[in-house]
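for the record, two folds in this file. i put them one after another cuz i was lazy. first one right below, seq on top, structure tokens after. the second one comes after a little note so u can tell where it starts
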Amino acid sequence: MKNHDKAMAALLSSDTQGEAAAKCGITDRTLRGYLADPTFNAEYQRRKRQLVTDATRQIQASYQSAIRALRGIVDSDTSTAGEKTSAARALLEYGLRFTEINDILPRLEELERIADK
């Protein structure tokens, strides 16, 4: 694997650029040079976005299970009042956020479509 590939993999799996440089056996300065290269940087940014997209899909896949778990706490005869309150609060707060997002997103997309004309 060439240095660029190693650096890309290290950047995507490290907390800091210094850690990434150490992982792939190059200096911080060399890594900064790679990141200054428009082609390398564009690919790095694309891959970072893909990681976030993949993580988002994984989180979204667990929404129904999380909601069922929270509802189970709210409906349980063995849950304490505090547990029920916390679960109910989470359901209400996230329910409102999702509702707002679902209401606003189509409007935003329509405005972007109009602006692109």
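(here's the note) second protein begins now
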Amino acid sequence: MTARQLMGLWLLATATSASWAEGEDRPVASDGGDQVIYRRIEQVRRATAGFRLDGSDRDWRQVPQLTDPRGDAGGDPGRDLVAAAVAPRQNDLWIMLRTAGKPSTDPWAFYVEVDLLADPGDDFRIELESLERGPVLRPYDKRWQAGDPTPLRRAKAIVHRVVEMRLPYADIAAALPADKAALLAGKDVRPWVRIKSWTWDSERQREVDYGPAVASFRLIETPYPLDIALPSRPRPPVDVGLPLRGSWFVLQGAMGRFSHQNLWAYDLVKLDRSGYQSSPRDGKKNTDFHSWGQPVFSPIDGRTLRVRAEAEDSPPREFGRRRTAPNYIQIAAADGFALDLVHFQKGSVTVEPFGRVSAGQQVGLVGNSGNSDSPHLHMAVWAGRFPRRTAPLALTDVRVGLNSGIGDFWARELTRWEPREGFFVEAVPAGQHAR
């Protein structure tokens, strides 16, 4: 399939959107509130219709942005990323990066990781090699190793008051492997796009700063499903509350690529403003990870069936090397299902087998026990009193968004939501939904 054909399919099947200036007190959609999001998409779509590539942020004032504190770039204001925005329009992807001072024009100063396709993780990296050559694309393989750089013939970048890039989807398709390019088209095109940015000092050969991760729905006229379709369900989902407090990211969902094949199971992690699980980014210790030690609460009333509490926590990045059982709690509910909460920190579990547990009761801390790549909470529902198969679940009374935090322009407040990878989710007290 040619890049031109892919582009035609993209125009038929895609959807495009954006995010809003952080911290503004804006309403969020309640149940049935997809129309609220569609109105916002239309608002931003119209705002981007007259975009001009001029290195100014004038056109971006009506486009959602996320910010990052100044002064964390070691005294280099030209590489100190303080704001980012993405506008996935119908034919092209626009990116804006703002720095604390006039942006650096040095070669290789700016990099952007792009999560665009219906495939988990970042799909490719955009590098601004030089203003003369323009943006180049490095695709990632299944292990997220960057491939050779490919110039994007019609892509443009300008560094002036801000860093501004326009990346035509046809160029992106031509630069990706065929299996990746195919995901740019078809009925299952993902409805949102996320970017992460960072800066580099080539003279000193070091990373300088990481900007805020920012995601946006796609910006097209025709309404499209805001949540991607799930696999066919064996039964209706079981309703449970979110067992965590604050904003959590659905890293892996049902029938996932890594450890959830053929499982209705979900992995939840904490991410920082730049979209990473740890600080430093290549965290070597469990304590480097934002999820580590976060309290876990029972989301249901029930009785514990099985409990394991004393398994050692694995070092990060060792998935597949350890086959030991993790620390976990299995809670039986009155209506015949059982809920698993898994990977607790050693010694943190506070309940005993065959004891009563109440919704909202703290039951342990997030850890990295068993065969786990990094600290996270795994949750799954099992059907039947002596369960053999996982069942789909729905989280009740939650705020669901593309960006972390209550200020997310794209957040919806829902009384029930079946989790999907790539979204942030946060519990909302029952009866306190925005209207």
